[in-house]
Amino acid sequence: MSSEYDPVRSDPFDAGQDRSLETVQRYFEAAAEPYLASPWSWLAWSLILPAAALLTPYFLETWKWLGVLLLWSAAVILGGAIEAFQIMKGRRKGGTTALATWVLRAQGNLSLVALLLSLSLIHI
Known about the structure:
By secondary structure, the chain is mostly helical.
C-alpha cells in the first residue's frame, strides 16, 4: 500500500529518487489541499487574536488575571472551533490522504491538549 511518504522515505541509497525540496513541497501541498481550500479560518484567527490582544488590558484592569485567562481561553476555543469546522468541511469536499490524516490527527491531539489546559486553568 503506497502513501505520500513513499517518494521521500524509500531506500536512502537509491540515487534514482527525486528528493528535492520542490518534490517534497509538492507532496505536502497535495496532501494539504483539501484542508487549505478556504481562507475563513485564517481570517477568523487574524481577527480573533488581535482583538484578544487589544482587549487584554481592559480585562486585566476589570477582572484581573482571571479575566485575561478567560479572554484568551475563549479566543483560542473560538478560533479552534472555526478552524475545525473549516477543516471538516474541506475534508468532506476533497477527501483525504494518508499524510493529511496523520497531520490532522496530530493537530487534533494538540488542539485537545490546548482545550484541556485552558479548562484546567479556568478551573484553577
